[in-house]
Write a structure and sequence with these properties.
single chain, mainly alpha, MetI-like fold, 13 helices, 0% strand, globular, MetI-like_sf, transmembrane helix, transport, membrane
Amino acid sequence: MTTTTRRRRPSRRAALYATLIIGAAMSVFPYWLIVSTALKPRGELFEAAPWAPPSSPTLENLGALLSSDFAQSILNTLIFVTVLTVGQLIFTTLAAYAFARLDFRGRNALFWLYLATLMVPNVVTLIPLFLIMRELDLVNSWYGLVAPYVFGTPYGIFLMRQFFRSIPREIEEAARVDGAGHLTILWRIILPLSRPILATLAIVTVISSWNNFLWPLIITSSADTRVITVAIAALRSEIGIDYTRMMAGSLLTLLPMLLVFVFFQRYIVRSVALTGLK
């Protein structure tokens, strides 16, 4: 190893660490801005730099939101997320088992046709979905809010199907010899072996449902069905934007997702890894 190469290594390492530190700072800065702004009194926001910490932190903004209709939006979001998660687990499991284990004509073609809908942006289907809900008189209702997602998604079915196909068929064949049917095999054999992927699907569904904004914005119009993401957008008034109140709402939205990530990050990483299974 030459002297020149030895000198280059520390400089490259220093440049790498500097790049990583800058990237980490850029990633953390928006979250710091949310927390800092949410804890500032209204008059202090424009008196100093936006990124400066609050001189006198206050929970007034959070308390004002929790004592308003925003608290109802949090409850609505919890109901929305729970219904979608339970529905996804039930219907996605049934569909994935059919695609993975049942033999019927056109199974693979139907599966790949259904999976191809992942290539279609969600915004393309928003207007047709809204027209369907309007004809069914489901606009501004809980049924219209959850209907497009509660019966499963292509991503969830693909994720579960790939895992089901990795379970040895010998286990299923042994159960058939004992007289077990499809529902018995699914309930007593497949599902106990699929607890990790079920947890992964639940976590992914919770995160995506909690952050869903565009469809709830279009299909709902009253506080009774308004979710938290739409409630944050509704904090804008005709006079202007109350940034401290809006950042307080963002903080209330962010905290549950941070807790989910901290406690269930291995399942989130697993969902990315399992998507590549053959």
